Structure prediction request, 261 residues.
Amino acid sequence: MVGASGRMGTQMLRLLPEFPALQLVGAVASEQRAAAGTTVSSGDGSVLPISAALPPLLAGADLVIDFSSAGAAAAHLAACAAARVALLLGTTGLAPELSAPLAAAAEVIPLLVAPNTSPGVNLLLELVRESAQRLPAGYDIEIIETHHRDKTDAPSGTALALGEAAAAGRGSRLSELAAYARHGHGSPRQQGQIGFGVLRGGDVVGEHEVWFLGQGERLLLKHAATDRSVFARGALLAAQWLAGRPAGRYAMRDVFISGYR
Ligand SMILES: NC(=O)c1ccc[n+]([C@@H]2O[C@H](COP(=O)([O-])OP(=O)(O)OC[C@H]3O[C@@H](n4cnc5c(N)ncnc54)[C@H](OP(=O)(O)O)[C@@H]3O)[C@@H](O)[C@H]2O)c1
Prediction:
């Protein structure tokens, strides 16, 4: 587990006993954390030291779960590919330059890139895609997201993924339809736009609403995360699904469609 000392890592370690098929064989975090001699408990009672180096741990591993830092993703990806160990990459904000290394790694290892591991959000993505496809083109689509006051990126990665799903349902790309900012006068809504609204405040874990607004009716699809453990549990479900698969590039959609089995 890479990022074992972080918020996601800590939650996953806490939930690990619910997943008897998964056994922790190594824990990785930053150099400072490793140098401080920090340890983690593996759920079966044993205690492991946190290491700063992933490659030496891979000989004894079937799968790596990485929720750490976007800046370190390239090195972790290369290490897993070289050692032929499956990788669940949950870290977000991956650089566009990682596209080619991700594609190359997926030739030799099972690779699941999972920017949102919540089962509910992954179902919502499907519902949004289908709704956008089935409703008449005249229905306006608006996405509203709410997060805690400390979140720095906007709109959230999940809001953007919902926008991409809505655009795909309409046979298009979000980059062609998105309206991220509205202010001032004289700019009415354009047909086909996908609009975004962003709210920030308090301790909101994450809420996403997708509105389809037609003449005489509105359809609202909404997801609310009430506890970060939903992402940790979803990640462990996905890890269990990924272990033992053939090499290839997978997404949470594949996990979801196969019913997590
Ligand atoms: N896919 C999802 O559903 C989902 C859900 C939540 C979060 N995330 C993403 O997961 C990532 C981690 O989130 P978080 O909230 O757990 O962050 P966090 O609390 O800041 O934890 C980050 C972890 O990564 C470690 N780390 C940092 N730099 C590293 C490096 N160079 N090499 C190895 N380990 C390193 C940290 O170690 P130290 O303790 O030593 O600093 C810590 O264990 C973020 O990208 C976040 O956006 C994804």
